[in-house]
Amino acid sequence: MIADAGWHDADWEIDTLVVIGSPDDYLNPALADSKLIEWLKMIAPRVRRLVSVCTGVFLLAKAGLLEGRRVTTHWMDVERLRREYPTLTVEPDAIYVRDGSVATSAGISTGIDLALALVQEDCGRKVALSIARRMVLYLKRPGGQAQFSTQLRAQMAVEGPFASLLAWLEENANLKHSIEDLAERAAMSPRNFARIFLKEMGMTPLKYIDQIRLERAIGLLEDTVSPLGIVASESGFTSAEQLRRVFNRRMGITPIEYRERF
To answer: Are residues 101 and 159 in the same domain?
Structure first.
């Protein structure tokens, strides 16, 4: 896009205001621009939807437009957002978050996911799918999906102390695991293993295993017509009910709703 006007020229009606992010060299001067912040405060009540991409969330927060809301941003800026705006509920893993008329996305590509979701909301799935196909994109990623899959986390840890363990877990997540068993496989004491795993991977070992199973279930829901009980069994859950509970907690919808939608 080539801009033919600046925000200070916007005297027309705005339906959806999208505030983009940028590196600190550009973001920090924008945050210090009192006229821009005041304009955001003035215009926000007049728009139907308020959206941020990546670190654009900092501008909305600086303008006081996110108080008490659930939000997300790029994983590299999550801690800064939490530190500077402690009244916000920051979702560190979500690719985008919808909270009423406000939507925030984690980064550039996830801004595309969010944009497609907004198009689908306004114009229907057929139009959004047509755009996705034209742009060679997936129309599948819901907002609750994590910024990092377990496979990507495993790649990032390839040189770390858990490289072989993570590769083994990818193949054996359907087995029953205990902290003691995993610690023994990693040649550590259970306490030390749990502490270092949390530090290296950003989540507990059992939550990591749940994430592997959830991602496997998502793939089966998207690519097969298998009943929920079989999906649960093949992805490592003890029952369809356990899958429903974990799925609803992590994704915000039921497995059947996900299959129908995606």
So the answer is: no
